[in-house]
Amino acid sequence: MNDEIEFDRTAAPAREVAELSPLVRRLIAGNAGPMTFTGTCTYIVGRGRVAVIDPGPDDLGHITRLLAALGSETVSDIVVTHTHRDHSPAAAALKAATGARLVGCGPHRPARELALGELNPLDAAADRDYAPDLEMQHGDTIAGRGWTLQAVATPGHTANHLAFTLTEENALFSGDHVMAWSTSVIAPPDGSMADFMASIERLRGMEHARYWPGHGGPVAEPQRFLRGLVQHRRQREAAILNRLAEGDETIAAMVPPIYQGLPAALHGAASLSVLAQLEDLVLRGVVACDDPLPQLASRFHRV
């Protein structure tokens, strides 16, 4: 069986409401970019009395289109997978317009404490204003007319990340944890590679028929895709260990040979990904770090 990961970068219209299934509609925000692909996917679940998943960025145009798509329907719940600014800020405006309950993940928090003098490179990406009416935990459910959403704890991309099973269709709204178009960005201290891989294993123990991600199109064969993600991470880990064996001690030295051909503008994101892998390797005792907590400027070597 070939478990090589295959990404689907087919673009979808950002400004049209797409009917994805009997219970699911999608509206894509107009915030396309190198980290958001064609834009954030906002999902409407149900008919008549609905839930809205990941209302998106604080963008008046997107909010206006979303309210127009909802028409006379009643929004009972606004559901948030995680608190990055491309997913949760529009919740405040949508709640004000509809009176819906805001539920889902807890407030934003780092995956670990910051080291002395360490800065969080993704701090500006966090929505610190998000305050849910109901903070959901793994296994918690909310329901409406003909639909049920159950929370699945999937930390890794962020510490507070939740996915949601749509029970009636055996589908998963996977947020930024698993996406068909790209691997998820894991950036310490905001995220954790160890947590991410544990969450992948949790999903491998479930049998969803389809994933609806936070960006891009669906994951049509979830179990095969998850196996591909595990293989991809193992290959990246092997590449990092090879660079250490070649004498590279810093992330700055490792990124160019590992990410050959990557535009220089994306080296910062690649550096954070390498840091996440190294942090996990340090936790497992495979690699040693000169600092108490691994940082971008740290020096590393094999144990």
Helix content, binned percent? 25-40%
Overall CATH class of the largest domain? Alpha Beta
Shape call: elongated
Structural class: alpha/beta
* CATH-defined architecture of the largest domain: 4-Layer Sandwich
Cα radius of gyration in angstroms: 19 Å
* Fourth-tier CATH superfamily name of the largest domain: Ribonuclease Z/Hydroxyacylglutathione hydrolase-like
Uncertain residue segments: none
Helix count equals 6
Order of helices and strands: EEEEHEHEEEEEEHEHHHEE
Main beta sheet strand tally, sense and closure: 7 strands, mixed
Beta-strand fraction estimate = 15-25%
Number of domains: 2
The spatial strand order of the largest sheet comes to 1-2-3-4-5-6-7
Q: What can you tell me about this protein's structure?
A:
The structure is a single chain. This protein is an alpha/beta fold. It folds into 2 domains: 18-220, Ribonuclease Z/Hydroxyacylglutathione hydrolase-like (Metallo-beta-lactamase, Chain A, 4-Layer Sandwich); 230-302, Winged helix-like DNA-binding domain superfamily/Winged helix DNA-binding domain (Arc Repressor Mutant, subunit A), CATH 1.10.10. It has helices at 60-70, 90-98, 193-204, 222-245, 251-258, 267-283; strands at 18-19, 24-28, 41-45, 49-53, 74-80, 101-104, 134-135, 141-144, 147-153, 162-166, 171-175, 210-213, 287-289, 300-302. The strands form 3 sheets. Strands 1-2-3-4-5-6-7 form a 7-stranded mixed β-sheet, with helices on one face. Strands 8-9-10-11-12 form a 5-stranded mixed β-sheet, with no helix packed on it. α3 runs antiparallel to α4 (222-245) and α4 (222-245) crosses α6. The protein is elongated and about 65 Å long. The model has no long low-confidence stretch (mean pLDDT 94).
